[in-house]
Design brief:
Helices cover about 55% and strands about 0% of the residues. The protein is mostly helical and about 80 residues long. The longest helix has 17 residues, at about 65-80.
Length: about 80
């Protein structure tokens, strides 16, 4: 389906039962997933996961400080 056709089809007014994932399910075999079930695999994500394991990070307390550490480690890995 061409993007303009898809855009036109998705912009139509629909019954409430055909909103959100119900509408996308019509485009093929599609499984619902929760955002927490999606795993990101990137260099920063791998660094964060390793730090979480090593330092016992839990919850989102001090998240900005944690991300500063991850960013510093990421930049250091790029310089090597």
């Amino acid at each position: 389906m061409v993007s303009s056709e898809l855009e036109k089809d998705l912009s139509k007014e629909r019954e409430p039962c055909l909103k959100r994932w119900h509408l996308w399910a019509a485009f093929g075999n599609w499984e619902r997933s929760k955002a927490q079930d999606i795993e990101l695999d990137s260099p920063k994500a791998r660094i964060y996961k390793k730090c979480k394991e090593l330092f016992g990070w839990d919850g989102n307390c001090h998240f900005s400080e944690r991300m500063q550490i991850v960013e510093a480690l990421y930049r250091q890995s790029l310089q090597q």
